[in-house]
Structure formats: structure tokens, C-alpha cells
């Protein structure tokens, strides 16, 4: 008897919605010559680039036995790693506690709570709401470490966890290579933990060593460039912490570009107005840097630049 239904196309859970994001051409912001292509990381279920590393770190911790099935998890976050982990923890049924600086966006805290995580906010010691410094992150980290010591929960430790870049090397890098048909001259990205930049750059350089991999840093906190920090407060939440991250590997980078708050905001607005893409600040910074590179002659005029739309504008206060 013939089957009554056709073949199905159903994802087993939200975990299967992580990754495989589309690549969109920003031809209205940059009509050419050259091209700016952007990975739509806001389309992950946690609405940011950090879902990928969340899945990679939790899956590998479960596989190695460091994390027990349904065991408790603790992490320190600027909000996006927390949202990604909360997606994974909800599906796999792990109790999750997240510590975050009170200066990070309240929208992220709401989303993490809605996904079932417990959120503990650390008061700011230096910055102000929307501007989170290394000292503020350290405060949140100390709270997280105390929770780990008190409860014995599994500590994800995104800033020191090698499974963070691995997830990007195994998935995001190959996706970009496939989506561009290998036509990529430059990769441009901000750096928080460096998981994304290091993982993707490592993969791309293995395919073609001539691909230029460029770090985007906030002006006044260009530590990867080698400059001293003169302005620890900036709008690029989730990146530019004023300290070279533990996971950063200089051999994966060719050079850096500095972006001001004004430029990041200008391109955040242009993404919305010209491309119909309502994004956060680091996405604006990435596109600002790509435009700067094409205008400066630092890359060939006809270069194809791939960059990232890291998170949704909905993750920030509306008029910030
Ligand atoms: C909005 C945003 N952009 C960029 C990054 C940087 O990603 P990574 O930690 O992989 O360097 C983060 C990290 O939290 C982020 O939240």
C-alpha cells in the first residue's frame, strides 16, 4: 500500500537548529567593487554566534564524562554564551546557573531566565550600563567561581576551553568555505573569547593560506594590535575586553582594524536601514571594518570579505 504521507523534514530539537546559518550579501551597504558577505548568526535559536560554542563545549564535556547527564552547569557570560547554554541546557535537561555583569543588557538576562536558567548579576565596579569593562567581567567571574566551589557544578569556562574554538573550526569554517565556493579573500571578526576568530581562521587558512584573517578591535582597547588600553569602555559588548584572550593564537591573524563606537553604531544603523537586518553592535563593528578595508586599499579592490552578524538588535535596550 502506498504511504499516505510524503517524506518529512523535521528537526529533532532546537539543538539541530544551531549552525548552518545563511550567508547574505551586503550589496546595498557595499555595492562593489568587491563584496561583503555576512553569516547570519542571529538566526541561531539563542539569537547569537555563541550557540555554536555552547553546543560544542557541552557535547564534548558529556562525551568525556566531565559533565554528567542532567548534571548542574555554571558559566560566566556577557549574555550570549548564557543564552546559547540555556538553549542547550533546556533541551538536555541540565540545571544552569549564569553569572553576568549587571552592565550587560537586561534583554539577555530576560532571555536566559525565560529559557530556564538562574541568572546572578554582579554589580559593576568600573563601567556603566551598556559599557562593560574587564574589571566588571572579573567581578562576574569571581561570583561564578564561588558558585562552582560551593556547588561542585561543571564550569564551562569559555575563555579557557579549547572546545570553544573547535566547534567553530569544525562547523562555521567549513560552512563559509562551502557557501562561498572557496571564493573568500578576507575574514573579518571581533574577538571576545577568540573562539570564533581562531576556529574559523584556522580552518580557512588550512584551505588557502593566502586568505587574510583580520581582527576587529574597539578603538582605545586594541591589545591584540599591541597598543595600551586608553578607553576600556565601549559599545562592543561581548568583545574587546582589553586583554589578549587566553585562547587567541597570533598565527591565525594577519592584522587588526580599530573601530570607534560611532562607526559601529553607524553601520549597525545602516544594516537595519539598507539591508533590513536589525543587529547588535559587534555586527556593526564587523561591517564597518570590512568597509574600511575595501576603502583603504589594504585588501584587493575586488576582494570578497566574509564577516559575521553576531547577534540580534533585540538583545539590546531599544534606544541604546
Ligand atoms: C555580540 C558578540 N559579538 C562577538 C562575540 C565574540 O565571540 P567569541 O567569544 O567567539 O570571540 C561575542 C561573544 O560573547 C558576542 O557576544
UniProtKB/TrEMBL annotation:
Please indicate which superkingdom the organism of origin belongs to: Eukaryota
The entry sums up its family as follows: Belongs to the cysteine synthase/cystathionine beta-synthase family.
Q: What is this protein called?
A: Tryptophan synthase beta chain-like PALP domain-containing protein
Q: Per UniProt, which keywords does this protein have?
A: Amino-acid biosynthesis, Cysteine biosynthesis, Pyridoxal phosphate, Transferase
Q: Which Gene3D superfamilies match?
A: 3.40.50.1100
Q: Which GO terms describe its molecular function?
A: transferase activity
Output the PROSITE patterns linked to this UniProt entry: CYS_SYNTHASE (PS00901)
Q: Which residues does the UniProt record annotate as the domain Tryptophan synthase beta chain-like PALP?
A: 16-310
Q: Name the coenzymes or cofactors required.
A: pyridoxal 5'-phosphate
Where, by residue number, does the polypeptide cross the bilayer? none
> Which PANTHER family does the entry mention?
CYSTATHIONINE BETA-SYNTHASE (PTHR10314)
- Any one biological process term the GO annotation gives: cysteine biosynthetic process from serine
Amino acid at each position: 500500500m502506498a504511504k499516505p504521507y510524503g517524506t518529512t523534514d523535521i528537526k529533532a530539537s532546537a539543538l539541530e537548529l544551531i549552525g548552518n546559518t545563511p550567508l547574505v550579501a551586503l550589496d546595498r551597504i557595499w555595492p562593489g567593487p568587491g563584496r561583503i558577505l555576512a553569516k547570519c548568526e542571529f538566526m541561531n535559536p539563542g539569537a547569537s554566534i555563541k550557540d555554536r560554542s555552547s553546543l560544542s563545549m557541552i557535547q564534548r564535556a558529556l562525551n568525556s564524562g566531565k559533565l554528567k547527564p542532567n548534571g548542574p552547569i555554571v558559566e560566566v557570560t556577557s549574555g550570549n554564551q548564557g543564552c546559547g547554554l540555556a538553549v542547550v541546557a533546556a533541551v538536555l535537561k541540565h540545571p544552569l546557573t549564569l553569572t553576568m555583569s549587571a552592565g550587560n543588557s537586561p534583554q539577555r538576562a530576560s532571555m536566559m531566565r525565560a529559557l530556564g536558567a538562574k541568572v546572578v548579576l554582579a554589580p559593576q565596579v568600573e563601567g556603566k550600563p551598556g559599557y562593560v569593562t574587564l574589571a566588571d567581567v572579573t567581578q562576574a567571574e569571581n561570583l561564578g567561581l564561588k558558585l562552582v566551589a560551593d556547588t561542585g557544578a561543571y564550569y564551562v569556562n569559555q575563555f579557557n576551553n579549547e572546545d570553544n574554538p573547535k566547534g567553530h573550526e569544525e562547523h562555521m569554517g567549513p560552512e563559509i568555505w562551502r557557501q562561498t565556493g572557496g571564493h573568500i579573500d578576507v575574514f573579518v571578526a571581533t574577538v571576545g573569547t577568540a573562539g570564533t576568530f581562531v576556529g574559523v581562521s584556522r580552518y580557512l587558512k588550512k584551505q588557502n593560506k593566502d586568505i587574510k584573517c583580520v581582527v576587529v578591535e574597539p578603538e582605545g582597547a586594541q591589545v591584540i594590535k599591541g597598543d595600551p588600553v586608553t578607553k576600556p569602555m565601549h559599545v562592543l559588548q561581548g568583545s574587546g575586553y582589553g586583554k589578549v584572550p587566553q585562547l587567541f593564537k597570533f598565527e591565525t591573524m594577519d592584522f587588526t582594524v580599530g573601530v570607534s563606537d560611532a562607526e559601529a553604531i553607524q553601520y549597525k544603523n545602516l544594516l537595519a536601514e539598507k539591508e533590513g537586518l536589525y543587529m547588535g553592535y559587534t555586527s556593526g563593528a564587523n561591517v564597518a571594518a570590512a568597509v574600511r578595508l575595501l576603502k583603504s586599499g589594504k585588501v584587493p579592490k575586488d576582494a570578497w570579505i566574509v564577516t559575521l552578524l553576531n547577534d540580534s538588535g533585540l538583545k539590546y535596550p531599544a534606544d541604546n
